[in-house]
Write a structure and sequence with these properties.
By secondary structure, the chain is α/β, with parallel strands linked by helices. The chain has a single domain (35-166), classed as Double Stranded RNA Binding Domain, CATH 3.30.160.150. The chain has three helices and eight strands. The strands form two sheets. Strands 3, 4, 5, 6, 7 and 8 form a six-stranded mixed sheet that branches. The protein has a two-stranded antiparallel sheet with strand order 1-2. Strand 1 and strand 2 form a beta hairpin. The radius of gyration is 22 Å and the shape is elongated. Residues 16-27 have low confidence and may be disordered.
Length: 169
């Protein structure tokens, strides 16, 4: 009788683990086990102020994050998981006003619209805008700071997009 209970418990445990369909990675990302590929389309710059290289830098950063933090193969198009969208806002505005009505700091804000498609689980699909910013001293020109600011903002944006896509944040 004990042998029968042992076999029954072993069978139930094995069935439980066999039925799991979600794959986990070391970075905490949850990726469908069926997914083998991902595609990141070019994010077009639809702003009036953004530099011409902003689209290329953002797209490459998102591709790098997805390919290094998952074991999915990067494809040009039609991946099992797909990212597409556009850079929709690039804005510089004063944020810290000094006593003489001059700005002490300015803020560069960038907004990216993302459409994420998961062909295995449509409930995970989303369309969302993500906005991040970085501040810089008002007495320096945006052109002298832009590369460093874009690097930081792109890091923040791609982290947000990755977490929303693979960690359901």
């Amino acid at each position: 009788m004990k042998k029968l209970y042992f076999i029954l418990i072993l069978f139930i445990t094995a069935s439980f683990f066999y039925g799991c369909k979600v794959k986990y990675s070391l970075n905490g990302a949850t990726i469908p086990i069926e997914a083998k590929t991902v595609s990141v389309s070019f994010f077009e710059n639809k702003t009036t102020l953004g530099t011409p290289s902003i689209s290329q830098k953002f797209t490459e950063r998102l591709r790098d994050v997805v390919s290094t933090q998952t074991n999915l193969s990067l494809m040009k198009q039609n991946g099992d998981l797909q990212f597409e969208g556009a850079i929709t806002d690039y804005n510089v505005a004063p944020v810290a006003i000094q006593s003489n009505d001059q700005a002490a700091n300015n803020r560069l804000s960038i907004t990216v619209f993302v459409k994420y498609s998961n062909k295995f689980d449509e409930a995970k699909n989303f369309e969302q805008s993500f906005t991040r910013f970085a501040d810089f001293k008002a007495n320096t020109s945006i052109s002298s700071q832009e590369d460093a600011l874009l690097t930081e903002i792109n890091r923040q944006l791609t982290e947000d997009i990755f977490n929303r896509s693979f960690n359901n944040w």
